[in-house]
Amino acid sequence: MPKKPPFSIVTPTLNEEKIIGETLKALKRMAPDAEYVVADGRSSDKTEQVALKNGAHVVFEGRGFRSIGAGRNAGARASKSAILVFIDADTIPQPVFFERMLKEFEDSSVVGVGCKIMPGELTPMREFIFEILNLFVKLSVRLDRPSIAGNCVAYRRDAFFKISGFDEEMQASEDQDLCVRISKLGRVVYLTDVTAFTSSRRLKKMGWIGLAMDWGGTTLNFLSGRKTTRYAIIREI
Predict the structure, then answer these.
(1) What pTM was estimated for this model as a whole?
(2) DSSP state of 172
(3) At 55, which CATH number?
(4) Closest Cα partner for 134 from 144, 146, 120, 122?
(5) What sign does the dihedral 196-199-204-205 (CA atoms) show?
(6) Digits of tens for pLDDT over the chain (237 positions)?
(7) Domain annotation covers residue 85
């Protein structure tokens, strides 16, 4: 019998040909025994071929995902492990994340584990802004309303499906929404000393003012209970 992977890494994609290969290579160096599932939204580029070449299992749903949440859900359904790790195509965590995440899940009361998110191309301004954002996440966990980003986060499989996964109608803040809902089933841990580095492509495209308006609008919708049903897709140029 083949050995069951310790966890499954699910990555939603849509036209990520330029970066998905390097992301998968980097993750496989850190977690060679993990299962890799790429949930593709019917990309028009070579995302599928690059993912397959780098050892990932590629799945689709219908004629294309309605949202990133739908992609993550499709990948989760296709996975085999008891722990689901969601990592975006433009995000790479520190190697220690996987060890620390598994250690936290040894406590049966833990249903989710996340970490800090920082831009890969650090400048003093970017570091300052993201440290503030991470502080808000830390406070949300302490206030029992955890809002951990979906760039790099892990959930216990049974808890994930008990709450029916991500809300597929949401184009943004679906990660915060799931985190709040799953926290009703157990404890969510936020690793403040572990970081995942993500692309600054949205910032480069929109600038600070545009990004503030973008994130501000989706956050206000989330806090007021409204669903963001349209959200700009930013890809590598």
Answers:
(1) 0.89
(2) B
(3) 3.90.550.10
(4) 146
(5) negative
(6) 567 889 999 999 999 999 999 999 999 999 999 999 999 999 999 999 999 999 999 999 766 667 899 999 999 999 999 999 999 999 999 999 999 999 999 999 999 999 999 988 777 887 888 888 889 899 999 999 999 989 999 999 999 999 999 999 888 889 999 999 999 999 999 999 999 999 876 665 656 566 555 555 566 566 566 666 665 565 554
(7) yes
